[in-house]
From TrEMBL, chains A, B:
InterPro entries: TR_Rrf2-type_CS, Tscrpt_reg_Rrf2, WH-like_DNA-bd_sf, WH_DNA-bd_sf. This is RrF2 family transcriptional regulator. PROSITE patterns: HTH_RRF2_1 (PS01332), HTH_RRF2_2 (PS51197). It comes from the Bacteria. It holds the Pfam family Rrf2.
Amino acid sequence: MELPKGVEWAAHALVVLHVVGDDRPLSSAGLARVFDLSPTYLNKHLQKLAAAGLVTSVPGASGGFRLARGADEISLHDVVAALGSAGPLFRCKEIRCQGAFADQKSQILAQGLCGINRAMLQAEDAWRSSLRSVSIAALASGVGAASRTRMFQVTGLEPTTQENQ
Amino acid sequence: MELPKGVEWAAHALVVLHVVGDDRPLSSAGLARVFDLSPTYLNKHLQKLAAAGLVTSVPGASGGFRLARGADEISLHDVVAALGSAGPLFRCKEIRCQGAFADQKSQILAQGLCGINRAMLQAEDAWRSSLRSVSIAALASGVGAASRTRMFQVTGLEPTTQENQ
Ligand code: FES
Ligand code: FES
């Protein structure tokens, strides 16, 4: 069981979008140059991020993608969910009601969740909560000045005055 | 991303093995009857549990499978790992060292883990720790008396004196 490979670059792409400026659209070509990714591949995933409401597609010659909301309101969990892992890691098929227990199905179900299911869901909650606690803003704060400068250079965007301070 | 379906029945099977008695081998046919599972399917997965050292295969006419160690020393995480999800959910490909950053690779790597990777690993740790905290013994303690009786009936094993107390 492994998360889709797109999670890594999608998280990085969101960090870049935040570093260059939340309100400044960046073309998928510009974004692709930062980490030398295929623009086609990148675009496919940017569409998923857009569908999940994490980025907004801005039309026009100087258009592209920008964050759809504040970088402190986008978590790593949002990224994981946008790329298709929103659903449960474990799906209980209620095997406790099968075979020797089939005739007791309604009584068993009335007792609530199976202990195994409960434990699996609890573990998954711990995973998702941990991912929810990390925002794109927090991740971007770890990007050093030299890396920021390169991100501006390669995307062709200029640092804003605020960014220069 | 979803865990293999076998996780559910493997966890249940280990609970049954503990309920009927850690030291009493149960045939895969007997075990299959409890939840009306296919003995072939069950056997394939019992082999994986055996390979992971969670159950021991006992040869002979009254042979079968029994727990390889105490039920309090087998966790839900052991089950998940035995069925193939021991590896990381997230594998960092170091895309931070690609493209515009390719010439800085050694300096970047020297700074330690990428923040995104660190956060993903931390979340995964939270998931695995939670699974590790739940033992087969703890799960079995939630099995009621009526269900225990049925497990003995359908497996053809008699409760031990200790079990009757
Ligand atoms: S019945 Fe599904 S986890 Fe127990
Ligand atoms: S470089 Fe792999 S997660 Fe950042």
